[in-house]
């Protein structure tokens, strides 16, 4: 029987001790790693590394998501640097722009790193279609409210210029989400016809 060695835990004030298991052979470690990986794969998960997908960034959907991310960032940073809290409608614009920006950035990273392939249970083309369509509608309301709020700003002041630029970028984001919804629709339609 193997001898157990007690080793003190570092960083604790009391003299707590833990058991250290005896030296395992290389074959034992390999077998444990195989069992662990097979349990991951049986659970629908994978432990492989992520890859960078260069073709995605050059695709229509990748370029549109990049434009949505950049223009969306400009929408909420241009508004966030002003006194937008005095105009109630601009709170909605900030909410829509920040939420859509965060979700778009997450999806962009998932697609860019091909992490979405590790979760095949999610219908990614349908998810993209629903997200882009919803974001286009929400951003359209935000862009219209942003444009309507311009009348409350005084011309020539700093926040008037920022609100005007934010409105222009908001309408650009609407166009990007609408175009990406169309690309997602075509992709979803072609996959549903193949099935």
List keywords for this structure.
195 residues; mainly alpha; two-stranded antiparallel sheet; 2 strands
Tell me what you see in this structure.
The chain is mainly α and 195 residues long. The protein is built from 6 helices and 2 strands.
- Can you write the helix and strand succession as a string? EEHHHHHH
- What is the average of the pLDDT values? 80
Strand content: under 5%
Unreliable segments of 5+ consecutive residues: 1-30
Number of helices: 6
The biggest sheet, with number of strands, parallel, antiparallel or mixed sense and barrel status, is:
2 strands, antiparallel
Strand order across the largest sheet: 1-2
Q: In one word, what is the shape?
A: elongated
Derived from helix and strand composition plus strand pairing, the structural class reads mainly alpha
Q: Find the count of extended strands (DSSP E, 2+ residues).
A: 2
Our measurement of the CA-to-CA distance between the termini, rounded to an integer number of angstroms, reads: 59 Å
- Helix coverage percent of residues? 55-70%
Structural Rg = 26 Å
Tell me the layout of helices and strands.
Elements: E1 5-8, E2 17-20, H1 26-42, H2 54-58, H3 60-80, H4 88-112, H5 124-148, H6 158-194
Antiparallel strand pairs: 1-2
Give the gist of this structure.
The chain is mostly helical and 195 residues long.
């Amino acid at each position: 029987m193997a001898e157990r060695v007690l080793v003190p835990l570092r960083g604790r004030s009391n003299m707590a001790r833990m058991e250290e298991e005896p030296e395992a052979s290389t074959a034992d470690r390999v077998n444990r790693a195989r069992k662990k990986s097979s349990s991951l794969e049986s659970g629908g998960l994978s432990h492989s590394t992520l890859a960078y997908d260069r073709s995605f960034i050059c695709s229509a959907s990748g370029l549109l998501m990049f434009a949505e991310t950049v223009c969306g960032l400009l929408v909420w940073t241009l508004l966030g640097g002003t006194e937008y809290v005095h105009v109630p409608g601009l709170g909605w614009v900030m909410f829509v722009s920040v939420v859509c920006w965060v979700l778009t950035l997450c999806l962009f990273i998932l697609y860019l790193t091909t992490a979405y392939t590790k979760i095949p249970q999610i219908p990614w083309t349908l998810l993209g279609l629903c997200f882009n369509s919803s974001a286009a509608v929400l951003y359209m309301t935000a862009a219209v409210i942003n444009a309507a709020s311009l009348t409350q700003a005084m011309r020539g002041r700093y926040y008037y210029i920022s609100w005007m630029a934010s409105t222009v970028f908001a309408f650009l984001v609407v166009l990007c989400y609408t175009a990406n919804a169309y690309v997602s629709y075509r992709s979803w339609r072609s996959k549903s016809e193949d099935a």
